[in-house]
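Re: How this chain folds, sequence and tokenised backbone to follow

Filed under: protein folding, tokenised backbone structure, sequence and structure records.

Contents: The amino acid chain and a row of whole-number tokens, matched residue for residue.

Body of memo: The sequence and its backbone structure tokens, given next.
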Amino acid sequence: MKTVFIIITRGSLVMNFFFSGVAKKLLNTGVKLIVLSPFSERKEVFTPFQHENLYIEPLHDSPQTTLSRIMLELLKGAIFNKTIHTRYIHRITAADSPPSKLWYLPRMLFFAPLRLLPGFKNLIRFFDFHLQPQRENDYLFEKYKPDLVFSTTPNGVSDVGVLKGAKRHGVKTIAMPKSWDTLSKFLFNTKTDRLLVWSSFSKEQALRYQGYKDSEVSVTGAPQFDYYAHKEKIMEREEFFKKNGLDPKKRLILYGSTGSNLCYESRYADLIKKYIDEEYLGKAQVLIRPHIAYLGDGEQFKQLNKYPDFVVDKQEKQDSRFKDNWDISEEYLSHLFNSLSHADVCVNVASTLTIDATMCGTPVININFDFPDIKKDMSVKRLYKSDYVDEITSFGATWVVKSEEEYLNALKEVVVEGKRKDEEMKKLIKHFACANDGRAAERIANATLNMLKN
């Protein structure tokens, strides 16, 4: 019997690798699966997936030190690019602190040029391995003698420690970045034997930035998108609308929040109310979807709840015991799928939800303009400067609006006139999500099994 370690550090990864069926296929083919997780004591998380060959072990994290922070700067310099430069200047995620202006010049002078040094990627990985060994989980290799380690967040501190342990013990490794924006943030501390990625876009980045060869990277698609291929999961319109306090006779605008403190998003929702009140959009209503990863994100929209054509979604149940606050129930997936499928348009600011909506066949409007009184650190325009967002908007598959006038016109075109960009949307799906066939989990499991055979 072959033994595989799989690292699960977030609620979303439970959904991606367990609910999707990846773990089930591995277990049903006779693999002993050892889950390494910081929430190993929460037995209820993995209870629905119980199997005689499934074991749960605690995952121990490594403390952050001055050395680890310096090493991170070197890893960024090793692949310095547009995305990293943007993060030197702007705060791009809600969890980040504003970058220090004092650090900008030293970073550009001393770290950015490192990408030009031949062999620097291998050199910095060598030093990182020896200077930061991260042995906290090595005892598990002695206990289980694994044949393979599967990293689901290869840029995460906990995953890196286990991957280093695998290298010390001569164990093969495979990894899959959890998101579309991971590969260009910094050089991964450890290069795995094989890498699985969402799409051709991700593969290009893996080859360019992470030092992988073409033969070492497989495109599988993203398991979190598999659910969207099951059209039988779409509820009847009347049932879904009634459940959410919506009117089935009106068009539905879904507004997807980017995150609690990245920009003043409620003002863009306020504009939609203005357009509805002025009768530009016919009979329309708005369902606002707060970002599940940010506790209290719905608070910024609460003033809109008092209006008859606005509903701030409260269907999803955030779980603060997970690092990403994720809801790991099928109800969450079903509600998201139905919200996207029944919407006439999805409006967002540079969000991954753009891909989700496109997978569900829903037109997307991306907001890329600021109000006159907005300061630079809260500008939505900064969120479009990363390479992955720039790439997704280059397909012309969405309406990227750069003024209030364009915003209104795009809403009228989609909501009132029913315009679509079907051909462009198909190209976007192929480039960013591989396929819309519901078989990503199957491809991931097969790639893992092939690693065990070789």
Notes: The two ends are 15 Å apart (CA to CA).
